[in-house]
Design brief:
628 residues, mainly beta, 5-stranded mixed sheet, 2 helices
């Protein structure tokens, strides 16, 4: 199955290559009145080269190679010839095939024959997404001096990139991504002066990014993400003045972002995330007026946020989370009139949130969590009518109460105020937000009182986290109205009574929607209700460190997607249900320190967990415990 971006990219390639082939076919048509009127006859050399290629393919689910019969290869499916010379100019066999009313996803199994290097007039070769094409890229492809487009992405090719490809001086587009290629990026690629697109992402390429790549002055797309590249970014990267897309993310690049990057004034997308880049973000970034998407997260960047970025009026998404950036949030960033996403979480930012944030009229996602920010939420936040997600958790805020300015953020759907020094009871106005909050996180505060009955009015809530507080109450029966709740985390409070209400939601889905429940470290009593088994999508159930009693219900064995089950430190008795052998997705199990007895059921994953998963149950026996 393909995501929309893959489909769009495939259609773009198909449209582009069709245009190239059409130009090749009609190139000489106006130059002679004596041109042959019938279909062109392919040369014997091209015929033999294609037949040898066909012989290297042992499976073709598309059936296109079945048409490759007879002596005129110009009549074969997906082969294009020049109308005058009969020489093959195009070979298009992508795995994704589209027509006016269909899309078919096909594959070929085999290797790419060296014989393709004999197609001397070939201008486009498209073997993308055939999935099961293995072996090396033939070095003979370096003989295709007329080649303009080479597309071999989304296969299982391995080995290094042939140096001979550096001879393709007419090459404009090179797609080798999503294979298993290793070795380094050839330095000789710097001679491919006509290259506009260089796509090498998701391989196993190593070494440094060659400086010669900055001589590709016609380059508009450079995508190297998802490799094992190391070393620093080329200092002269700014020489690529026509570059529109630059993606070097998910490598092991070190050093700093070169100051010359500010010369890339046509760049709309800059992705450098998940590397080991350090130093400050260069102030020259403020010159990149075409920039729309900026992702620098998961690096080791330090220094401060450049005020110069306030000039990037086209910028829509900024991700700088999990770095070491300090200082304050620049007031000038209030000029980012197109900004929709701003993620600065996991840094060392200090000071207050500037009032100018209220000028970000298109902002939808704001994450400032895990910094050292202080002060209060500016009242100007109420101007952000499009804001859907606000997270200011774990800073140096001491709000005391939930800030009422939030009530005026009318589009808010997700609110996270964990570790913000909030005290007292949960305010009822949270249940009257205009659009209805979908996710609420007030964990790690000093909340007291009860979980109020009105929480049942929050029928659109899918995630509720009130953990690490001092709440004292039973679980309100009104929780049954929370039909969309998927995550419930109430651990580490002082809750008492039965847990039945947590599993009595009247879900609109027959299988329930609860995926995660953590009620651990409370004072809950009673038995585990059999209705837990109705939540067939449950992945995590943590009920440890309570005073639950009775038998473990056998219905738990029907939770086929359950990955974590922690029932330790309770007063549970009886046998481990035989149905537990059906928990084939289980990764973590802890039943220790209860009063369980009998033999541990044999089968499934139960014998693969350590002794510590079962210890502290005096009557329990069988592998991995001592035999009964």
């Amino acid at each position: 199955m393909f995501c929309s971006s893959q489909l769009q990219r495939s259609f773009f390639i198909i449209t582009t290559t069709a245009a190239i082939i059409l130009a090749s076919l009609t190139l000489d048509c106006s130059g002679s009145s004596s041109a042959a009127t019938g279909p062109p006859q392919c040369s014997r050399g091209d015929l033999m080269a294609l037949l040898r290629f066909k012989a290297g393919i042992i499976e073709d689910t598309s059936g296109r190679l079945k048409s490759w019969n007879g002596t005129n290869c110009c009549e074969w499916q997906e082969v294009s010839c020049n109308n005058q010379t009969g020489r093959v100019v195009g070979l298009l066999l992508p795995g994704l095939i589209s027509g006016d009313d269909f899309i078919a996803d096909t594959l070929m199994k085999g290797t790419i024959s060296e014989s393709l290097g004999d197609l001397q007039f070939l201008e486009i070769l498209n073997l993308a997404d055939l999935k099961e094409i293995t072996g090396y890229i033939p070095s003979s492809l370096g003989k295709l001096h007329r080649l303009k487009t080479l597309i071999l992405d989304r296969n299982k090719l391995n080995g290094s990139i042939p140096l001979s490809l550096g001879n393709l001086h007419n090459l404009e587009e090179l797609y080798l991504s999503q294979n298993g290629l290793n070795g380094s990026i050839p330095d000789i690629f710097g001679g491919l002066r006509k290259l506009r697109i260089l796509d090498l992402f998701t391989n196993q390429l190593t070494g440094r990014i060659p400086t010669s790549i900055t001589r590709l002055h016609n380059l508009t797309t450079l995508d190297l993400h998802g490799n094992l590249l190391s070393g620093s970014m080329p200092l002269s990267l700014g020489e690529l003045r026509f570059l529109q897309t630059l993606d070097m993310s998910d490598n092991s690049l070190t050093g700093s972002i070169p100051d010359s990057i500010g010369m890339l004034t046509n760049l709309s997308m800059l992705y450098l995330f998940s590397n080991k880049l350090g130093g400050s973000i260069p102030t020259s970034i403020g010159n990149m007026r075409s920039l729309v998407f900026l992702r620098l997260e998961e690096n080791e960047l330090s220094g401060v946020l450049p005020s110069s970025m306030g000039a990037l009026v086209n910028l829509q998404r900024v991700y700088m989370s999990n770095n070491k950036i300090g200082g304050s949030i620049p007031v000038a960033w209030g000029n980012l009139s197109s900004l929709t996403d701003l993620y600065l979480n996991g840094n060392r930012l200090s000071g207050s949130i500037p009032k100018s944030v209220g000028e970000l009229s298109k902002l939808q996602f704001l994450d400032l969590s895990h910094n050292y920010l202080s002060g209060s939420l500016p009242k100007e936040l109420s101007k952000l009518s499009d804001l859907q997600n606000l997270d200011v958790s774990f800073n140096n805020f001491r709000f005391v109460t939930v800030p009422t300015v939030i009530l005026n953020v009318t589009g808010l759907l997700q609110l996270s105020l964990a570790g913000c020094g909030i005290e007292g009871v949960i305010p009822e106005w949270l249940s009257t937000m205009p659009n209805g909050i979908g996710s609420l996180d007030l964990s790690s505060n000093s909340l007291t009182g009860t979980i109020p009955p009105w929480v049942g009015n929050m029928t659109g809530l899918y995630s509720l986290n009130l953990s690490n507080n001092a709440l004292t109450s039973t679980l309100p029966k009104e929780m049954r109205n929370m039909s969309n709740l998927g995550v419930l985390d109430l651990h580490s409070n002082h809750l008492t009574g039965s847990i039945t209400a947590a599993f009595s939601m009247q879900s609109t889905f027959p299988t329930g929607v609860l995926g995660t429940v953590d009620l651990s470290h409370n004072k809950l009593t009673g038995s585990i209700p059999s209705s837990v088994g109705d939540q067939s999508g449950m992945q995590k159930l943590v009920l440890s460190h309570n005073s639950l009693s009775g038998a473990i219900p056998s219905t738990l064995g029907s939770l086929a997607q359950l990955q974590t089950l922690e029932l330790n430190e309770n007063h549970l008795s009886g046998r481990i249900p035989n149905a537990f052998v059906n928990l084939t997705s289980l990764l973590q199990l802890n039943l220790s320190h209860n009063s369980l007895s009998g033999m541990i059921p044999v089968g499934g994953l139960l014998q693969k967990f350590p002794i510590s998963s079962y210890s502290g149950n005096r009557g329990l026996c069988g592998n991995p415990l001592p035999a009964c």
